[in-house]
Amino acid sequence: MEGIISECLGLPPDFLPNYKNDQSRDVLLGLHYFPATEDENLGKPAHEDHGCFTIVYQDEVGGLQVHKDGQWIPIAPSKDTLVVNIGDVILIKTLRTSLRVKRIKENIMASFDIPTIDVSPFFRWNQGNEEGKKKGMEKMREACVDYGFFQIANHGIPLDLLAELWIHV
């Protein structure tokens, strides 16, 4: 994933893997959130992801929101896709984005479709699909710059393995 994102941002494919090659900041978490009750609303407060990227596999309940242009936008779960959040490291190091820490007070809800990217053209078994790869790279770059989020479809992870994930979390 790091190599694909590096290429999509116009960087050498080994940029992100080499940038953090000591693996000292890699974290793998399996979190299971229980649905809110009528009396309370449980969840993680507004925050930024400080690493390179965060991959989220949502269940059908959802609850993930993105803060964009002053509005909270719910990300509807999409079956068999992974949501990729572009973290501060990529924004600062590759997009040269100046991040300012600000307190988020708005509670405005909006709606939009998060960009979904078919990554199958990037796999070895699909070599020769350069047009599909080029389109996917451009769409991923636009999503990184414009949204900081995208969904991955046809990610190559066996669906039975993803289903098993929910059993163990």
TrEMBL record:
The segment(s) forming the Fe2OG dioxygenase domain are: 24-169
Q: Which UniProt keywords apply?
A: Iron, Metal-binding, Oxidoreductase, Vitamin C
GO MF annotation, one:
L-ascorbic acid binding
Its Gene Ontology biological processes? coumarin biosynthetic process; response to molecule of fungal origin
> Matching InterPro entries, A to Z?
DIOX_N (IPR026992), IPNS-like_FE2OG_OXY (IPR044861), IPNS-like_sf (IPR027443), Oxoglu/Fe-dep_dioxygenase_dom (IPR005123)
Name any one Pfam family assigned in the record.
Answer: 2OG-FeII_Oxy
The entry assigns this protein to a family as follows: Belongs to the iron/ascorbate-dependent oxidoreductase family.
Q: What is this protein called?
A: Fe2OG dioxygenase domain-containing protein
Q: Which organism is it from?
A: Capsicum baccatum (Peruvian pepper)
Q: What lineage is on file? A: Eukaryota, Viridiplantae, Streptophyta, Embryophyta, Tracheophyta
